[in-house]
């Protein structure tokens, strides 16, 4: 039997409230995610625990019996953990998921600046692709999502359910290794075929570049020689002189400053991007609510990294 502790805690909460919606709020997850977790618990134990035909809901006879075990397990585990830690839990950390490039190159500077205005802010950050991050946010398995804003609405996030803060305006720049004279080894102004380092098909940043090139004959001269979903991976290949790539400006700021990389084309080839911090309004976790209220009071330029 493969049981997750959070399922047991969910079940105890449901037994107390006799309401899926109230229990979901108490457990700081969306109601669909909470319902799936109760279903997963029932599948794990092999019996139906909840009678969903009544309002408020009732436990089945098997559920009433299992509730005793669930409560004992949860209480014993919490008591043991409290004893092992020996001290009260510190302020609860916020779980944040972020696109890889934002997690590596944007987040450290931005969160440091935010803490200047809000004070200490414990966080746990996990980097993943945008599609995975959206799924985690929708499931209520993270508190916040840091991602590029999608002007074409392909992320399909309802603004009422998933409100956001704009926290940065950046650009994707075409960059190349310089030649001996400091000029781009691979230039968009060249008439020759250009070795191109591309984002994979499903990568969000790749979609932005494809929209830029969609109706431009330049795309016919770009010969893809390497693909990856991560901007940092493309940057590493550019530094090896393999080809040119579009990289977010905050990822290559130092390399452009010290001359290790140069722009491969003029400003007309820049791709503007907006960075936003998202939350799910259906999840009412006290720490997230407090952070959101505090951010609304800060001057807009303080939020911008």
Which regions contain 5 or more consecutive residues with pLDDT less than 50? none
Q: Give the distance, in angstroms, between the N- and C-terminal Cα atoms.
A: 47 Å
As a percent range, the share of helical residues equals 40-55%
Strand fraction: 15-25%
What average pLDDT do the residues reach? 89
Order of helices and strands: HHHEEHEHEHEEEHEHEHEEHH
- The shape is elongated
Summarize the biggest pleated sheet: 7 strands, mixed
Beta strands, count:
11
Quickly count the helices: 11
Classify the secondary structure makeup into a structural class. alpha/beta
Q: How large, in whole angstroms, is the Cα Rg?
A: 24 Å
Protein name: LysR family transcriptional regulator
Keywords: DNA-binding, Transcription, Transcription regulation
Family: Belongs to the LysR transcriptional regulatory family.
Organism: Billgrantia sulfidoxydans
Secondary-structure blueprint:
Layout: H1 5-17, H2 20-26, H3 31-45, E1 50-51, E2 58-59, H4 61-85, E3 94-98, H5 100-118, E4 123-127, H6 130-138, E5 144-148, E6 164-176, E7 194-199, H7 204-213, E8 222-228, H8 231-239, E9 245-248, H9 253-258, E10 262-263, E11 271-278, H10 286-297, H11 300-303
Parallel strand pairs: 3-4, 3-5, 7-8
Antiparallel strand pairs: 1-2, 5-11, 6-9, 6-10, 6-11
Helix pairs in contact: 1-2, 1-3, 1-4, 2-3
């Amino acid at each position: 039997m493969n049981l997750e502790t959070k399922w047991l805690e969910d079940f105890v909460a449901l037994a107390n409230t006799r309401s899926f919606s109230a229990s979901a709020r108490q457990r700081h997850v969306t109601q669909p995610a909470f319902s799936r977790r109760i279903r997963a618990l029932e599948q794990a134990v092999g019996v139906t625990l909840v009678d969903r035909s009544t309002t408020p809901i009732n436990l089945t006879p098997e559920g009433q019996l299992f509730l005793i075990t669930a409560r004992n397990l949860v209480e014993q585990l919490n008591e043991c953990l409290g004893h092992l830690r020996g001290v009260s839990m510190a302020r609860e950390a916020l779980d944040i998921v972020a696109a890889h490039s934002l997690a590596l190159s944007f987040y450290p500077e931005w969160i440091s600046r935010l803490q200047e205005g809000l004070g200490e802010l414990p966080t746990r950050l996990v980097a993943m692709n945008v599609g995975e991050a959206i799924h985690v946010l929708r499931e209520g398995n993270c508190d916040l999502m840091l991602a590029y804003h999608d002007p074409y609405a392909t992320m399909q996030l309802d603004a009422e359910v998933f409100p956001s803060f704009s926290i940065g305006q950046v650009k994707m720049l075409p960059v190349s290794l310089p030649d001996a004279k400091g000029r781009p080894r691979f230039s968009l102004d060249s008439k020759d075929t250009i070795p191109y380092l591309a984002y994979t098909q499903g990568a969000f940043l790749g979609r932005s570049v494809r929209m830029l090139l969609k109706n431009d004959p330049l795309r016919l001269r770009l010969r893809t020689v390497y693909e990856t979903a991560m901007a940092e991976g493309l940057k590493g290949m550019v530094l090896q002189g393999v080809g040119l790539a579009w990289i977010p400006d905050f990822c290559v700021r130092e390399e452009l400053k010290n001359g290790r990389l140069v722009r491969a084309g003029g400003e007309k080839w820049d791709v503007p991007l907006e960075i936003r911090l998202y939350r799910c309004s259906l999840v009412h976790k006290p720490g997230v609510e407090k952070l959101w209220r505090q951010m609304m009071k800060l001057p807009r330029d303080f939020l911008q990294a």
